[in-house]
């Protein structure tokens, strides 16, 4: 797996976990648990934003890590 693929996979995983935490917050009746889930989801949102910035930076510096372009090139071949 390439660096670009690893970055995108990590980003996808973090977004999925953020969505899970948001879902847990909505499903529980426990106020304390809701606050914890919401705080964790908010922290993950910041991590996602930071990682997205880093992915964009890496892709601009190293075009070979652009996952979307790699997929398009594979489909054309």
Topology:
Layout: H1 3-27, H2 31-61, H3 67-76
Helix pairs in contact: 1-2
Give a verbal description of the structure.
The protein contains 3 helices and no strands. The model has no long low-confidence stretch (mean pLDDT 88). It has one domain. The protein starts with a helix and ends with a helix. 86% of the residues lie in helices and 0% in strands. The chain has helices at 3-27, 31-61, 67-76. With 77 residues, it is mainly α. Helix 1 (3-27) packs antiparallel against helix 2.
Quick description:
With 77 residues, this protein is mostly helical. 86% of the residues lie in helices and 0% in strands.
Instruction: Report mean pLDDT, rounded to a whole number.
Output: 88
Structural class: mainly alpha
The profile of the biggest β sheet is: none
Estimate the strand proportion. Answer: under 5%
Distance between the termini: 19 Å
- Radius of gyration from the alpha-carbon trace, in angstroms: 16 Å
Strand-and-helix sequence, N→C?
A: HHH
Low-confidence stretches at least 5 residues in length (pLDDT < 50)? none
Portion in helices: over 70%
Give the count of helical stretches: 3
Shape: elongated
Number of domains: 1
Total beta strands? 0
């Amino acid at each position: 797996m390439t660096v670009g693929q690893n970055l995108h996979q990590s980003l996808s995983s973090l977004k999925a976990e953020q969505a899970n935490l948001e879902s847990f917050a909505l499903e529980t009746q426990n106020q304390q648990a809701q606050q914890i889930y919401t705080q964790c989801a908010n922290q993950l949102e910041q991590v996602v934003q930071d990682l997205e910035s880093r992915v964009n930076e890496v892709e601009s510096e190293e075009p070979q890590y652009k996952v979307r372009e790699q997929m398009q090139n594979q489909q054309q071949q």
